[in-house]
Amino acid sequence: MSTTSRRYAALAGVTAAAIAIGIAEPVAVLTGPRSAPLVAVGGVVVDAVPESLKQLAIDIFGTADKIALLVGTALLLGAFAALLGMLAARRLALGLTGIAAFAAVGAAAALTRSGADAADALPSLAGGGLGALVLWMFIAGPLELDPWPWSPPTPIAPRDEAPQAPVSPAGPMTSDHLPVPVTPAAPPEPDVPSGRAPGEGVEPESRRRFLTGAGVLLGTAAVAGLGGRWLAGWRGVSAAREAIRLPAPVAPAPALPAGADLSMAQLAPYVTPNFGFYRIDTALVVPQVDPATWRLRIHGRVRTERTYSYADLLARPLVERYITLACVSNEVGGDLIGNARWLGVPLRELLDEVEPEEDADQVVGRSVDGWTCGTPTALLRDGRNALLAIGMNGEPLPVEHGFPVRVVVPGLYGYVSACKWVTELELTRFADFDAYWVPRGWSAQGPIKTQSRIDAPRARNRLTTGPITVAGVAWAQHRGIRRVEVRVDGGPWQEAELAPTVSVDTWVQWSWRWDATPGEHRLQVRATDETGETQTERAQGVVPDGATGWHTVTVTVR
């Protein structure tokens, strides 16, 4: 097959796959966004890939890891589709079989997701059926090239030759009766247009029809795909969220003390705005949960099972607190941490109402998409401000941060506590159930470690000699920070000044004045919590229970 032939075949395959994916999107509006083939397959990939690859994706792409996964999946699909097109050019049945396999994989992936039913297979099956039709149209239907560039030219019978004079059995003779040498006739040449190699003689009108069809179909796929995404958003819960008016809390958050936010360039603000709050979860598409139909079921090892509606929560006395959340995937010096003002119902009250059994040492939070986390029951009842949150920084929870309801627990990494889009709380035992991340190599217990970070100056900043303010944040939620120290080039530790903070459940800003001298310098920071424990110098990665080590920044002073 020539290069030109392969290009035509690959284009046919890619166009068929684009139609399959594009058409599946509006169908998924009816069955749920998680049933779309790309999302369903991507979800299976998220669950199946080794933890080291997941962490690598977070390290490289940060909170854009899900976009990177979807783009990567689409690129791999495009390569697979191009191969299917070339196979179909040789034998149509092979290409159609590949399309069918693709549809089957998408349908199977959709059916494996939590809460799936038979209808979730429809987007993949509908897309696969139309994709197969498009492939047939290019290979053997109305868009077929004439002739196919990968088909060998059809030999044409040799032209009639002039009648030959009878030749004696001995062959022709000269006048001297000597045999005359006979040159064998050359084989007939195939009927190939002048100046074109065999297999490249596509009629211009046929080529235009092929390329126009491909362009129209690719455009249709794009419109269908983007339109489906738009419809999914239109049918989402943003309007319902905007209509909610949160009640005033009976216990408002304490006022921020003067100076809690140093308001310095490069320094993270004391309160993280909603749009800048980190998001790490396994949801490739943000769940759209209608607050009117949302329910929370608390069950398991309890004496009284209870179910709560969103209206039930709004009618209860609400508490507002500043709480800093951190992701266990946060590297030393990383930004997967944020502080917000949360509004919600104390979880301790709800647990008291269901009366957990004495041996129920774990509360399993279950999200609408099936994700689970396991939180020690004792920590939810020890008096800390563990909330079933409905508000964030004075407004209903953003959809991407768990609307309508999520769990917020100070002092624990999110993977063991921060269940977004929560629909169930099950009382059980750690011995009986492993939450989502535990079989994947993470610790069942996830208390936040004492950590600190240098925000200013940034690594590789070029500075001028003289006084420079080094500043950053430190955190040890539910224990509090007692001291932060900075050192330069391995010298003695110098104590930094701590800004006032609102509670032990939030991070604290700090600053230190440095008289910088010319040269390249290495700045390091460490913190000591209120229990007297100083963060360790030992460098450890995030697995299995959070990173350790001192944040180090190298700067140049001129």
Automatic annotation (TrEMBL):
<dbReference type="GO" id="GO:0008482">
    <property type="term" value="F:sulfite oxidase activity"/>
</dbReference>
<feature type="transmembrane region" description="Helical">
    <location>
        <begin position="92"/>
        <end position="112"/>
    </location>
</feature>
<feature type="compositionally biased region" description="Pro residues">
    <location>
        <begin position="181"/>
        <end position="191"/>
    </location>
</feature>
<feature type="transmembrane region" description="Helical">
    <location>
        <begin position="124"/>
        <end position="143"/>
    </location>
</feature>
<keyword id="KW-1133">Transmembrane helix</keyword>
<feature type="region of interest" description="Disordered">
    <location>
        <begin position="151"/>
        <end position="205"/>
    </location>
</feature>
<dbReference type="InterPro" id="IPR014756">
    <property type="entry name" value="Ig_E-set"/>
</dbReference>
<dbReference type="Pfam" id="PF17957">
    <property type="entry name" value="Big_7"/>
</dbReference>
<protein>
    <submittedName>
        <fullName>DMSO/TMAO reductase YedYZ, molybdopterin-dependent catalytic subunit</fullName>
    </submittedName>
</protein>
<dbReference type="InterPro" id="IPR000572">
    <property type="entry name" value="OxRdtase_Mopterin-bd_dom"/>
</dbReference>
<keyword id="KW-0472">Membrane</keyword>
<feature type="transmembrane region" description="Helical">
    <location>
        <begin position="210"/>
        <end position="232"/>
    </location>
</feature>
<dbReference type="Pfam" id="PF00174">
    <property type="entry name" value="Oxidored_molyb"/>
</dbReference>
<dbReference type="GO" id="GO:0020037">
    <property type="term" value="F:heme binding"/>
</dbReference>
<keyword id="KW-0812">Transmembrane</keyword>
<feature type="transmembrane region" description="Helical">
    <location>
        <begin position="67"/>
        <end position="85"/>
    </location>
</feature>
<feature type="domain" description="Oxidoreductase molybdopterin-binding">
    <location>
        <begin position="285"/>
        <end position="437"/>
    </location>
</feature>
<dbReference type="InterPro" id="IPR036374">
    <property type="entry name" value="OxRdtase_Mopterin-bd_sf"/>
</dbReference>
<dbReference type="GO" id="GO:0006790">
    <property type="term" value="P:sulfur compound metabolic process"/>
</dbReference>
<dbReference type="GO" id="GO:0043546">
    <property type="term" value="F:molybdopterin cofactor binding"/>
</dbReference>
